[in-house]
Structures are given as C-alpha cells and as structure tokens.
UniProtKB/TrEMBL annotation:
Coiled coil: none annotated. Keywords: Acetylation, NADP, Oxidoreductase. It comes from Pavo cristatus (Indian peafowl). It comes from the Eukaryota. Residues 10-328 form the Enoyl reductase (ER) domain. One of its GO terms (molecular function) is NADPH binding. InterPro entries: ADH-like_C, ADH-like_N, ER, GroES-like_sf, NAD(P)-bd_dom_sf, Quinone_OxRdtase_PIG3. This is Tumor protein p53 inducible protein 3.
Length: 335
C-alpha cells in the first residue's frame, strides 16, 4: 500500500509517498480502507522528530481517518461489518491506504456526510470533547477561553461549548480567522497579535474572568492566562506551541486565584480510556452531526490535498494558514 513517509526528521520537504506493507488486523482490530485522513500538529512534531509514536503504534503519520471496513481481526464482536463507513481515532497510521484500528476506537460516519468531512472529526473533536468534559468538567453557563480558535480543535471546541450551554470566546491571529470563529458560534474573539487578550477577556466578563482556558500555546501566555482566569478556574494545557518555559512567579499567581492547571494528551492514553471517550462521544455528540439535528454540529474543512501533495499540506499547516482542518485524500482503488 502507499503511505506518507520520511527517512529522517526535518522539514516538510523530507516527506514522500512510499510503498509499504499493508497491515493485518490483530486481536479485536478492524482493517480500514482509508479514503481520507486529516493533519494535526502532532504530525508536524513527529516529522521533526519531536513527538515519537507511542510504543506499539504505527510509525506512519496520521491520527485520524475515515473510510470503509475492509477486514476483521480475530475476536471482533459483531459491531462492524465489511463495507461499513467508519471514522477512526488513531495512535498513528492514518496517512496510508489502509490502517488497523481497535474496534472500540471506530465511529459510524454520520448520515449524508462525506469521507472528507468525516476525516476532520475524530482527533480534533474527541480532543476538544475530552478537554471540555473529561478534564475541564465544563458546566452550564460557564465561559471558556479557547486559544487557536480557528484550528481544528478550536472550531470543534466552540461548537461543543455551545452544545454544553456554555459561552465560548477565542483568540486567533487574523480577522479572517476571527470571522470564521464567530460563524462557528464564538461569542467574542480577540486578535492576539494586536491586542491584549487578557484585558479584552476581563472586559467581556465584566472583570470576573473565564472559568476554563483551553491552551495549546503554553509558556508565552502564562501571565495573560492567569490575569483573565476566574477564581477557582481551570487552565487546561494540551500543547506547547510557544514552548514550555515559564519565567516568573506562576505558582503564587495561581494560588492567589485558587486556580488549577490540568494537562492532557490524547495520543498516549491507553486503549480503554480511548474506548470510553469514543463511547461517550457517540452517545452525547455524534447525533448532532446528522442533518436536521438542533443544534447542528459541522466539521470545518479548510482544504483537501491528494496524498502525493502531502508536502504542500504540511507546509500550509506549518505556516498556520488553515482555518479548520487540512484533509489528505487517498488514491481511489477498489477493495
């Protein structure tokens, strides 16, 4: 089968498409013929040699995919059958023509949704759902500050905060991105490049601050985050785009707010945790992707690249030019 590959860590130019062995499903695993996968920041970090796959995971890039069930390993229940349209949460391997997945990490593709759209759901939406509900314990009426609001996780989080009857506000780096977040449901948005988001957040919340911060930026935002965190607020860190170093009296500031810092990574979670997460998402969120549901949830696809243009796709994400998800489409072949 064909797969995205790199021989040594580095820039996007190190990527190429290579023929590799097609995987075989093990105990309790399903073989999926991939129609589309989507890019995540983790793919860029892995390509640079900074985020190796967990032990036992495929070293092929790709943390999410959508396609059709092509085979069932020993011990599978009757949950899935050959030909079912599915989307998958992966620890790796999505940017290839086939991938094996534990059966509990698969979700049915919502009715009337294309594989391109479905590929934009698993990693981004499950991450946002996990951060808000499993980690942040979001409550009705709370205000949530979402950094990188126009990213895949950000656009999912905006809609999930609304679904939880809470209030999403965001930061982003361009007016175009802020407009997209407003269209997705953000109550307010602030351009971190030309205004102090902490001052704007305090003004929006009439001085009280936000209950939850979803932060993929890290070090450079710590003072502003603490300035606009409400007393007893939760600061949830799931990425370190600006690095992890902090210079200053973070702990005293945090203590004065009685605030809590939570950190979370989804990729390295164990199989059982991911199964529980997928199950909760299927029950509580997935129905809202179907036509006619209210509120109606919608994955936002920024752009679609064929597998052989994987280099260009990585470059676009590296330059932070995307609003929503960048999707990789696999070559069309019969089963």
């Amino acid at each position: 089968m064909l797969a995205a590959h790199f021989d040594c860590p580095g820039g996007p130019e190190n990527l190429y498409v290579k023929e590799v062995m097609k995987p075989h499903p093990g105990e309790g695993e399903v073989l999926v013929k991939v129609s589309a996968s989507a890019l995540n920041r983790a793919d860029l970090l892995q390509r640079r040699g900074k985020y190796p796959p967990p032990k036992g995971a495929s070293d092929i890039l790709g943390l999410e995919a959508a396609g059709s069930v092509a085979g069932l390993g020993p011990g599978c229940t009757m949950r899935w059958k050959i030909g079912d349209a599915v989307m998958a949460l992966l620890s790796g391997g999505g940017q290839a023509e086939y991938v094996t997945v534990p059966e509990g990490h698969l979700m049915p593709v919502p009715k009337d949704m294309t594989f391109i759209q479905a590929a934009a759901i698993p990693e981004a939406w499950l991450t946002a759902f996990q951060l808000l509900h499993f980690v942040g314990k979001i409550q009705k009426g709370e205000t949530v500050l979402i950094h990188a609001g126009a990213s895949g996780v950000g656009m999912a989080a905006i809609q999930l905060v609304r679904l939880a009857n809470a209030i999403p506000i965001v930061t982003a780096g361009t007016q175009e991105k802020l407009k997209a977040t407003t269209n997705a449901g953000a109550a307010a948005g602030f351009n971190y490049k030309n205004e102090d988001f902490s001052e704007k957040v305090l003004a929006f919340t009439q001085g009280s601050g936000v209950d939850i911060i979803l932060d993929c930026v890290g070090g450079s935002y710590w003072e502003k985050n603490l300035s606009c965190l409400r007393t007893d607020g939760r600061w949830v860190i799931y990425g370190l785009l600006s690095g992890g170093e902090v210079h200053g009296d973070l702990l005293a500031r945090l203590l004065s707010k009685r605030g809590s810092i939570h950190t979370s990574l989804l990729r390295s979670r164990d199989k059982e945790y991911k199964e529980q997460l997928v199950k909760a998402f299927i029950e509580n969120v997935l129905p809202y992707f179907s036509g006619g549901a209210s509120p109606h949830l919608q994955p936002l696809v920024d752009s679609v690249y064929p597998l052989h243009e994987i280099v260009e796709a990585h470059r676009k994400m590296e330059e932070s030019k995307n609003i929503g998800k960048i999707v990789i489409e696999m070559p069309v072949k019969s089963l």
